[in-house]
Every structure is written in C-alpha cells, then in structure tokens.
Write a structure and sequence with these properties.
Blueprint lengths: L8 H5 L7 H15 L9 H14 L2 H10 L5 H6 L18 E10 L4 E10 L1 H18 L6 H14 L3 E2 L1 H17 L3 H11 L5 H16 L17 H28 L60 E7 L5 E7 L5 E7 L3 E8 L2 E10 L12 E6 L4 E3 L2 E2 L4 E2 L2 E5 L11 E2 L2 H5 L1
Parallel strand pairs: 4-13
Antiparallel strand pairs: 1-2, 1-3, 4-7, 5-6, 5-8, 8-9, 8-10, 9-14, 11-12
Helix pairs in contact: 2-3, 4-8, 6-7, 7-11, 8-9, 9-10
Length: about 450
Amino acid sequence: MSGSDPQGLYQALGIDPSASAEDIKSAYRRLAKETHPDTSANASTEKFQRISAAYEVLGDPQKRAHYDSATYQASTQEAEEHVLDPICCSRCGQVTAQPRHVVFFRVYSYIVGTTRTPVQGIFCASCAKKEGLKSSIITLFTGWWGVPWGPIYSIGSILSNGFGGKHDQAADERLLWYNTLAFLSRGNLQLAYALATLSKRTRDKEISKNAADLAKQLENAGADSRQAKLRNPWKISALYGAGHLLMAFALPGTIGLLIYADSQRGPPHSDYGYTAANIYSAPPSSIQYNPAMQKQPAKPSVPTCVTLPFNGKLLGPNQLLNSGGHSLEIRNGSSGNAIIKLREEFSRTVVAAFYVSSNQTAQIEGIPDGRYRVQYAFGDALDATCNSFVELSGAGQFPQAEALETERTATQIVTQVLTYTLYAVPAGNVTPQHISVEEFDR
C-alpha cells in the first residue's frame, strides 16, 4: 500500500493519487461495469463494494481532501526516532512549509447542460494561485453558455477560485503539524519552532497542546522567539482579487448594459419601412394582432373546452413508465398558454404531453431512459377534449435531442432534470426550430 494511499482507495480504482476528478469518475464507471452482478459475467460483489466505497470518498472533493491529508500523520516521538520527509507541492514538487489542500472549480457548459469539475491537490501558495487563475480563465470562456446554471456556477466558481479556493481548515492544520514534526526530525529547529507557534492556534485541541509543548521545548533549546513569525504566503493581493471580480462580473455587466442601451434606443428603422429583427426571437404569442382580421368573415363556431386544465396537467394518454425516472421542467414566460410534447427521437412516439399556463412553470416526472425531443405549441382556445388547441398560432421544437440515462451507485440512484424556457434570452445560444402544425399534431 502506498504511503499516499493509506486505505488503498486509489489502488482499488487503479489510479494514481494525483488523478483528476474525471479520471476518478471514468475509472469507477469502467470497473463498476466489469464487477457489477447485473452487467458482467465476471461479477464480484466484494470487488464492486470495494470500488463503490472508494468512489464514495474520492468522488467527493471534501471527503477526498480529508483522505489525502490523513496520509500525513506523525507524533513527536516518531519525529525524534525517524527522519520525516516534508510535504511537497503536488504541482511543482517543491517542499512547502505551509501547504494546503485546495479545491478549485472549472465550469463547462453545453447550451442546456452545465458541469462543475473540481481540480484539487496539496499546493504551495504560488502554484495554488496559478491554478486558481487558470481555472477561472477556463470558466470565463467555457462556463457561461449553459441555461440556466452556467452563469450561476461560473460566478460562484470564479469568486471561490479568486479568494483561495475551497479548503478544509482541519485538513490544513494536520498538514501544518506534520511539517512541524518533519522539520524537527531534520534538525531545522527554528523553522519547526515557527510552525509550532502557528499550530498552537489550531482548533484541534490535541494538536494545539502538542504544539505548545514543542514550542516551549524548542525555546529552551535556543529557538529565537523573535523569528517565530512567518510570512503568510496565502494572503490574496488586491490585484489578484480584483482580476477575479472583473472576470466574475464583466460579462453579465456588459450584457446588462447592452440590453439597457438597446431598450433606451428603441428598434432601429430603415428607409425601406422594416425594423431590425432580434437574432433570437421569442416563441409566437397565443394572441397576435393582425389588421386583416377585421375584414375576414366569421369562422364557424367550434366546441371548446369548458374548464381549462390546471398548470402542469398531463393531457391524453401518456407512457410515463416509472415514478423514479427523469424530470422535465418548462418555464413559460410568453403571453400565451402552451402544450408541451416529449417525443422519442427515433420512433417519434409521444411519451407525454402536458399543459403549461402563461407565465407559469410546470414539471413532469417519471421519464424513462432514452433520447427525446421537446416540442411546444401555442393557441387561443382548447377543443372540447381539453387536450389540444382548436387552432395553433405557432409551434416549434428545441433543436437538440436530449439523452437521459440513470446512474446507479452503491448508495444512490441519480436521475436528470431538463429545464427549458419559452421566452427569448438576449444574446442566447439556443434558437428553437419552427415546425408545422401537422408535425406537432402527428
């Protein structure tokens, strides 16, 4: 068993302690398929449980930080009997007197999906600041474009990266105390004394007491108390913090100013009598003014729905097969009521249809695994069955098919939630496709 893998969790997944979060997830998925009783002829319940237990710790950034810091444990007696190696930075490999286990986040967006990936390790202060800056720059260019979580995750991650990343105080205290004993074992009494002075202020009562006793012994051995104060390398400079604040708020601030300036200016008119169109147009409203309507003959009366369905009501037969499946949330910000249809991508079968009132949000659950397209339509009134509009004022679908797949671990079942909005997003990167009435009703 490796000294940096005290319980063999990295070994169980077949990866190195410096592995990234993506490497850990990939290794777990591969080994889970190879050992799970339901998916492999070479199934092993014992191995699967071992793999799942390892992933439960290493797949969680905070639990992994505690595990990594637990590697560095020693007593004063061990420091007197053995020479201990001081902790080195996981990036530059250099010895660092005041290490920290830090987690930075990078955000990646894929139009309607957003992921937040941790990048963690034991850092020296210099490498931590470089990694924080790198992760924030990556997030600045890749994180904003997902709806709706891209901007939220991006702002939070950039601010966290800019102010030192996420780190656990208890883990940092253990690392500092280990280094105190390591430098003591190597005869560097002055540095050991300075680190012991810092360790006296820890929240861990045992470390605090041992550090106070060691500091007193080193003072008696000739350590200079006037040189006990070390520079704090983790202090964030005003320039570094300001740079991250600028990255966090420059893009949304610029978009807000452009929207405000455009609203004050009004739509530009040309000499040929038409107005400039928005790049992303809203879905058609259920009520559209048409000057020619007053001249059209009255249409025959058609029986209509007496009582409108409640928001989120399922319409007609549906094929939702289980209660623990995936979810679809629709935010209807338009001025008209809408009918939403969820179709299987290849068979075009309608899995579910439901009603979403104007300016309301509705959600359905129990969607089985598969690939789906989301279609929508607006209209003035529902027919007598209350399941479809008498006449559609417009219909469309979101261009990208969504693949829904349930993830199963030893302790939980993870399903997905899809969220779509039925109103224009300024400078948005999703443009719905218009479809015919026949295609929607098919």
